[in-house]
Amino acid sequence: MSKTPAATARRGASRTSKKSTPKRATVSSKKTTATTANGLKTPGKPLPNYQAALRYLYDRVDLERTRAMRLAPDLMKLDRMRELMRQLDDPQESLRFVHVAGTKGKGSVCAMIAAGLQNAGYAVGVFTSPHLVDVRERIAINGVLIPTAMFADIANRLVEAEKVVEKKHGKPTFFEMMTAIALCYFADKAVDVAVLEVGLGGRLDATNIITPLATVITEISVDHTQMLGETLEEIATEKAGIFKPNVPAISARQTAGVSEVLRESAEKTGASFEVIGKDIDFSYRFESTPKIGPHTCVCLSTDCSNFEHVNVPLDGEHQAINCGLALAAIDKLRERGFDMIETQIIDGLAKTALPGRMEIAWREPRILLDGAHNGASLTALVKSIGAHIRYDSMVMIFGCSEDKDVDELLKQVSLGADKLIFTRAKANSRAMDPHELQQRFGEISGKMTQVAENLTEALDIAIRAVSRDDLICITGSFYLVGEAKKHIIALENRRKRTA
Q1: Where would I find the H helices in 120-255?
Q2: Residue 7's pLDDT is what?
Q3: Which of 32, 76, 243, 317 ranks highest by number of CB atoms within 10 Å?
Q4: CA 407 from chain center: how many Å?
Q5: Axis crossing angle, helix 406-416 with helix 434-442, rounded to the nearest 10
């Protein structure tokens, strides 16, 4: 991917040079074969196309889709990820990073950091999870998804590398392979900076093989307790595992116990630690103006930057905190020599796009999609809808995974929805039975509920139940939201064909 002249000039001597060592023979020199349509073996790549690469990757253990009780305790192993990257000639060593962990808001922070940097002329790679419709959503440069041909090409590099890794450490997981593809792609395209979202926890996450320029911790709440621990403090210990010596760490305000854990972890690691609104001058307020309508604006000041009355590009009070974290991370990059001015960053923030978060995906009737999947996220969603969207009544289509704090999720949806339709996503093997959701909800609330066996049926019920000024909200699971997006895209394409 070509760079702007300004971006190229800015990289300068501070950029770590790429390794000049040759590729390992185990990865690049061994001849492979591909199978043709008639079954004959021919010289070529083991994965002849993108679809073959997808099948290859989906044959791996996927922590996002597998029930926690079925996972081996040692499945998350950094030694395996390090060995995989060694076999690929350690592409991460040539890159500069911002590393983002936390429970909620990671995707929002990554999107805002990337938008600000891109508008200042930098080539920005972004690696996030999960995806909604296309797995390539996880890997993008300046908002453009990794091309299918490049995806397949890099997957082919992994085939031989995996054979070496498996002998020593077992098969890499789906997320480890996706992380490897992202790092190879960003190195191939020589991005100026890569923004990496932690997949699960932090300490043992596949992304934790990097040394970033800055680390960010978003708000920590209860989630993935089977893997990360039962208490907030235990979860915070895992998240703080991304701290590195002499790398600044920035955090949102946390509970007292979590803050103590994060500060102690930073001190032990040798990382500086700052909290926005406490160690970093930060404030925000909600307002409504005739030109913009209801919105939140933030202010953040440091010795290096002064961001005054910046409009938060995403709806919701919680997004003000995420915006502050993004600005603080960008400020740390400016301290490290990234050349950009406040107006470039602010203008870039305004262009932030984040599908599946407070997204109005259909207008008549209005259908809102949000991947809120824990109690804290659902609380923020209900508040955001109340602050930013006018409606007469809200019908909520809800489904969640069985390993979540289901009672807490149901408590939150009871506060916002006028009517509930419980369903489940087809692709989520961990999806909870909607009949059980209805039963447990009945113990919490007397609101009207229905059950649909699938999303299509749930939407049909909801559409018949709403009028022009009502709102349909689909939430509780990224799987459910992704399925809804696919359904809506299909409807839109059908409408275009018949228009």
Answers
A1: 148-169, 174-188, 225-228, 232-239
A2: 42
A3: 243
A4: 25
A5: 70
CA-wise closest residue to 63 among 76, 79, 78: 76
How distant, in Å, are the alpha carbons of 140, 165, 219, 283, 337 from that of 223?
27, 30, 12, 27, 36
The structure's pTM equals 0.88
Question: What tens digit of pLDDT does each residue of 167-189 get?
Answer: 999 999 999 999 999 999 999 99
What CA–CA distance (Å, rounded) separates 116 from 331? 11
| H, E, C per residue of 32-49 | CEEECCCCCEEECCCCCC
Query: Where do the structural domains in the chain lie, given as residue ranges?
Result: 25-349, 359-498
Check if the beta carbon of residue 351 is closer than 8 Å to that of residue 115: yes
pLDDT digits (tens, 9 = 90+) for 45-57: 899 999 999 999 9
The fold of 359-498 is Protein-Tyrosine Phosphatase; Chain A (3.90.190)
pLDDT of residue 218: 97
Average pLDDT over residues 128-148: 97
Q: Domain 25-349 belongs to what architecture?
A: 3-Layer(aba) Sandwich (3.40)
pLDDT digits (tens, 9 = 90+) for 304-362: 999 999 999 999 889 999 999 999 999 999 999 999 999 999 999 999 999 999 999 99
pLDDT at 72: 54
Query: Nearest 5 degrees, angle CA 436-CA 440-CA 445?
Result: 135
Using CA of residue 121, residue 127, residue 128, residue 130, what is the dihedral sign?
positive
Residue 2's pLDDT band (cuts 50, 70, 90): very low
CB-based burial, 440-450: b 16+ in 10 Å, e otherwise: ebeeeeeeebb
Helix (H, G, I), strand (E, B) or coil at 460: helix
